[in-house]
């Protein structure tokens, strides 16, 4: 049989590599696993006895598979383009920004006016991007210095701010803030794509793009030098890579342990894969009963999502059940070991759970969304008390031992919310052989049981093929 040419082999392997479900080997396991082997010893494959096929038939079959993969890939990319979804590759110092960076529609707030436009206006001249947030006083305090640089004052450089916050909120804030209201500020708003181009773990964060579109530097505040910015603008062939570990990839983990209680400390860290240097942890940090920081190190992505959902329910005062997290078909990636750390300023108003989900949605080929779902449940209630409005059951109900035991007795897959208060914690004396006997035995305990529709938040995890 004719061997595959190099081009044919590459096309097939490339198509397999970009399939929605990728096979990832753990660093702790052997290079080749066969039939569930995890001993760390490379095992030889058990081969199927050879079958003789017609050479031309096999060649045609392989070629057909390659074409199918290529068509599927092209269709997937085409569908994403039709829907306005484009893949974004993370940029590094020395890279050239892609054309879609300039052409993609964005929201820019300039002189108090919110415009739907592109960044074409900034193309062809050095552009300094300043990532900020309205709650970041450090970001705001350093903004006037940027506009006082020689490069900006001489008209050789443009400055563009960038924040994911809502446009109306940013406009109101700028009009009232003494540092900003007199500055000629233009800011991207409601924008998360920019952060995907230039990954960072803290704000403020600065990126200088040269007139030729090349990224000349990416630095945090600790490594910012306005003199260096001016020098880079004068010398477009030069670049500067930060000497500090201030990016999202290598930013030191567990910084929250030391700094997170400081005003306006925003930090996140994410690492995909096993990292023995980090150890293992699942830490929640609170101040005045308010959660401000999480460290979940070297645990499966599934456990991270489960922890985030559980914390969300705790903060809302709802009882949590594992069925409130739905994983859909995103099975393989959920077993990937990951590390996530995040800290948000206590006074920022940021939702740490939503911030964590947004980060995971960017860094993993998954989409985790909190949605409200109506489900049918049982309510175990006190027959001597007035029936509780359905809207209050989620707050007042609990999964007591009696409710869980009753759920097993009913065996219909529905949850049982107990709103009856303190009652016996077992089903002794409860006869569930028929609906009539069940109702009678519960009544003897002063309890009733009714089926209701209840709206309950769910965390839905799906495969995200647009990443």
TrEMBL record:
> What is the protein's given name?
TlpA family protein disulfide reductase
Biased composition, class Polar residues, residue ranges: 422-436
The record's listing under InterPro entries reads:
Thioredoxin-like_sf, Thioredoxin_ResA/DsbE_sf
What PANTHER family does the annotation carry? PROTEIN DIPZ, THIOL:DISULFIDE INTERCHANGE PROTEIN DSBE
Disordered, as annotated region: 417-436
């Amino acid at each position: 049989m004719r061997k595959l040419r190099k081009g044919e082999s590459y096309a097939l392997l490339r198509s397999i590599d970009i399939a929605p479900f990728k096979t990832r080997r753990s660093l702790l396991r052997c290079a080749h696993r066969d039939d569930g082997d995890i001993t760390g010893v490379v095992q030889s494959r058990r081969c199927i006895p050879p079958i003789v096929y017609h050479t031309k038939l096999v060649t045609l079959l392989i070629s057909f598979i390659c074409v199918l993969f290529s068509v599927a890939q092209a269709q997937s990319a085409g569908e994403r383009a039709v829907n306005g979804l484009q893949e974004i590759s993370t940029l590094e110092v020395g890279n050239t920004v892609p054309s879609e960076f300039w052409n993609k529609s964005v929201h820019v707030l300039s002189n108090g006016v919110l415009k739907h436009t592109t960044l074409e206006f900034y193309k062809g001249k050095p552009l300094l991007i300043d990532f900020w947030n309205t709650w970041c006083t450090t970001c705001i305090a350093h903004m006037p210095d940027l506009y006082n640089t020689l490069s900006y004052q001489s008209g050789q450089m443009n400055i563009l701010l960038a924040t994911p916050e809502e446009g109306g909120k940013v406009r109101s804030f700028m009009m009232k803030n003494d540092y900003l209201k007199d500055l000629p500020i233009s800011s991207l708003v409601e924008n998360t794509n920019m952060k995907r181009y230039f990954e960072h773990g803290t704000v403020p964060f600065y990126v200088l793009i040269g007139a030729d579109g090349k990224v000349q530097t990416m630095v945090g505040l600790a490594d910012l030098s306005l003199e260096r910015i001016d020098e880079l603008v004068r010398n477009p062939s030069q670049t500067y890579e930060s000497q500090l570990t201030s990016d999202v990839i290598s930013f030191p983990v567990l910084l929250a342990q030391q700094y997170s209680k400081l005003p306006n400390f925003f930090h996140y860290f994410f690492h995909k894969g096993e990292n023995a240097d980090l150890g293992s942890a699942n830490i929640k940090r609170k101040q005045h009963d308010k959660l401000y920081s999480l460290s979940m190190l070297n645990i499966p992505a599934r456990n991270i999502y489960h922890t985030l959902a559980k914390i969300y329910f705790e903060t809302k005062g709802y009882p949590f059940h594992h069925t409130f997290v739905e994983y859909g078909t995103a099975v393989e990636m959920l077993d990937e070991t990951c590390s996530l750390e995040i800290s948000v300023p206590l006074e920022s108003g940021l939702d740490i759970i939503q911030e964590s989900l947004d980060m995971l949605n960017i860094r993993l080929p998954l989409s985790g969304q909190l949605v409200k779902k109506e489900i049918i449940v049982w309510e175990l209630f006190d027959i001597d008390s007035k029936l509780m409005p359905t809207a209050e059951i989620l707050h007042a109900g609990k999964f007591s031992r009696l409710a869980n035991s009753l759920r097993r007795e009913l065996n219909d897959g529905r949850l049982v919310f107990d709103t009856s208060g303190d009652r016996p914690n077992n089903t002794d004396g409860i006869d569930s052989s028929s609906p009539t006997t069940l109702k009678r035995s519960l009544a003897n305990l002063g309890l009733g049981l009714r089926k209701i529709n209840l709206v309950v938040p769910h965390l839905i995890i799906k495969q995200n093929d647009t990443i």
